[in-house]
Amino acid sequence: MNASFGTRRANLAETVIHELSNRIDNGTYGPGQKLPSEQELCKEFGVSRPVIREAVASLRLGGRLIARQGVGVFVVEQDVKRLGFALSTAVDDVRAAAHVLELRLGIETESVARAAERRSPTSVAQITEAFDRFNALDGSNLEEEARADFEFHLAIARATNNPHFPQLLEALGPDIIFDLNLKHGQSTGKNRLAHIKKIGREHGAILSAISMGDVNAARSAVRKHLEESLSRYQRLVDSGD
């Protein structure tokens, strides 16, 4: 994907996000109401499925929509209780990123184990699709890279067949994206593609363990994937104290 194509898709997604937000605000789509299907939205807006998926993912991360596996995407009920974690908005706040990673370690180590234990052909296919989306990136769009990384982990959470895992990750979505933007932003220039390939290999080890139903290997692969960044953040925090 070249930079101009990525920019154009991002602009189209912003247009869809703005219109869907307006419809939620004015009651066209009321609380608890199911959104039209991807196919219907693509036809209405004249855009591709990736654009619609990106717009819906953004609104989900913003707490406006919620996905119910096998059912569809719905407007969040006004009285739904959602978790909120107020992190520093400083881009270089590695302490906040370390806090997010510590929490993710606890959640995702168990999430990936349940995904390996309860995997199905459909859930493995969905994780593989997210895996392929990340690996197709060329390093030109940091925000897209972070979101694709998050979607891989979210697909694993959905594979647990326990709705609380994906709901919790979605509630933490903005904070996880904050961490991923910081993580991916630490590599520049020629190191960008090398970084993507490294993360892709780590994702591949996780996907392989889930596909084989190897609970211990899945836990180990996720722990290795997350702990490297956590150790790096901790060294930066310690050096600044």
From TrEMBL:
SMART domains referenced in this protein's UniProt entry, alphabetically: FCD (SM00895), HTH_GNTR (SM00345)
Top-rank taxon, per record: Bacteria
Keyword hit for Nucleotide-binding: no
Keyword Protease: no
Pfam families in alphabetical order: FCD, GntR
Domain HTH gntR-type: from-to ranges: 10-78
Keywords assigned by UniProt, alphabetized: DNA-binding, Transcription, Transcription regulation
SUPFAM superfamilies linked to this entry: GntR ligand-binding domain-like, Winged helix' DNA-binding domain
A molecular function GO annotation: DNA binding
Name the record gives this protein: GntR family transcriptional regulator
Taxon lineage: Bacteria, Pseudomonadati, Pseudomonadota, Gammaproteobacteria, Pseudomonadales
